[in-house]
Design brief:
CATH class: Alpha Beta
Oligomer: single chain
CATH architecture: 3-Layer(aba) Sandwich
Distance between the termini: 25 Å
Number of helices: 4
Number of strands: 9
Structural class: alpha/beta
Shape: globular
Helix content: 10-25%
Order of helices and strands: EHEHEEEHEEEEH
Largest sheet: 6 strands, mixed
Radius of gyration: 16 Å
Length: 185
């Protein structure tokens, strides 16, 4: 889906489809070099990171495995509740594995910090993070993002997996949602 399909709800495009692809390929080249010869497991948090992990895994030049978790800290609103619940756990054992968490966005950092610690507690050999987007102005918990995509301003973004109330995930770029859409005006 393109912005033209939802133009009345989108304020402006922030990151184009081409820019997303370019950044993913750039980071994938670094990761492929860094993890050459290692047993790498990509872990994505559903549902937001699905588009990112799909594009990212295809851009890698090394073999990887993928697994998914479903965590919740938002509900249907726009602000994190602060409480993390596992809706769906990983299907594989991470003990002794090198883990790269593939994230769509790092906002407060709470969920990601929890996930890093949880994977370490489960015995992962290493845990690193690739985040396509970061909002440093909203960071509440320090997380070490080794592989960075784009730093974005504190605006409500949708597209490429990011949603508002389960809508806009299939937008092929990252766009800023008009405030009246999520503020109910």
């Amino acid at each position: 889906m393109q912005i033209a399909d939802v133009q009345d709800e989108i304020d402006h495009e922030l990151i184009t489809k081409a820019q997303i692809a370019s950044k993913i390929h750039e980071v994938a080249a670094r990761v492929s070099k860094d993890y050459q010869g290692r047993d790498l497991l990509l872990v994505a948090v559903l549902k937001g990171a699905v588009n990112t992990i799909s594009a990212f895994s295809q851009a890698l030049s090394i073999p990887v495995q993928m697994d998914f978790m479903s965590l919740s800290s938002y509900g249907s609103g726009t602000e994190s509740s602060g409480t993390i619940a596992i809706r769906q756990d990983l299907s594989c054992d991470v003990r002794g594995r090198h883990i790269l968490i593939v994230e769509d966005i790092v906002d407060s950092g709470r969920t990601l910090a929890w996930l890093v610690e949880e994977l370490k507690r489960r015995g992962a050999a290493s845990v690193e993070i690739f985040a396509l987007l970061e909002k440093p102005s909203r960071r509440e918990v320090d997380v070490d993002v080794r592989y960075r995509g784009y730093e974005i301003p504190d605006e409500f973004v949708v597209g490429f997996g990011l949603d508002y109330d389960e809508r806009f995930r299939n937008l092929d770029s990252i766009a800023v949602l008009k405030p009246e859409v999520y503020q109910g005006e």
